[in-house]
Amino acid sequence: MQPEPPLRPDLALQPLDSAGALIFEAEHWLITHRLNSALPGYLMVGARTETPDLSGLSTEALCDLGPLLAKAQTALRGLAARRVYIGRYGHDSGWPVHFHVIPIYPWVEELFWSDARYRALEAFADPSMEPGTDGAELTLFVWREFCERRDPPPIPGPSVAEAISQLRKLKW
């Protein structure tokens, strides 16, 4: 799998390339840290087969996917993620099918709630529903603040490099 190209090559995380971001290699899948993410533990689980759709994968690859995503979720809980969102986004051709595994740490939620710009999302909510946020709003927040900003918020806790190191030590 080719990693996602860095949107911000000048991001002062550390120089991550596909080898520097690699966490684990399985027979049908690669787990990497998202290259352009300042959020520690933002993982990508990508097929080793050059197909953009699940329907192009072998039965074996499909059978391996669920347990691998569960292990990724467990690993991020071990890094103190309160929530872990797993999703398939994107529609650009040229990329093998891949999944985003996004850790939401307590401090990420605190940053979200303290940022007045994101309160505008409340205008789209059903007033009869319980107040709060959902995965879509927090995913948007992570993408905008930790993947697209040239100056992401400070990270209270392990750095991206430290998270990669910790995740590599796990038994996948």
Task: Offer a few descriptive terms.
single chain; about 170 residues; alpha+beta; HIT family, subunit A; 5-stranded antiparallel β-sheet; 5 helices; about 35% helix; globular; disordered N terminus
Structure, explained:
The protein is of the alpha+beta class and 172 residues long. It has a single domain, classed as HIT family, subunit A, CATH 3.30.428. Helix content is 33%, strand content 15%. The protein contains 5 helices and 5 strands. It has helices at residues 18-21, 59-78, 106-114, 135-148, 160-168, and strands at 22-25, 29-33, 43-47, 83-87, 98-104. It has a 5-stranded antiparallel β-sheet, sandwiched between helices.
SSE topology sketch:
Layout: H1 18-21, E1 22-25, E2 29-33, E3 43-47, H2 59-78, E4 83-87, E5 98-104, H3 106-114, H4 135-148, H5 160-168
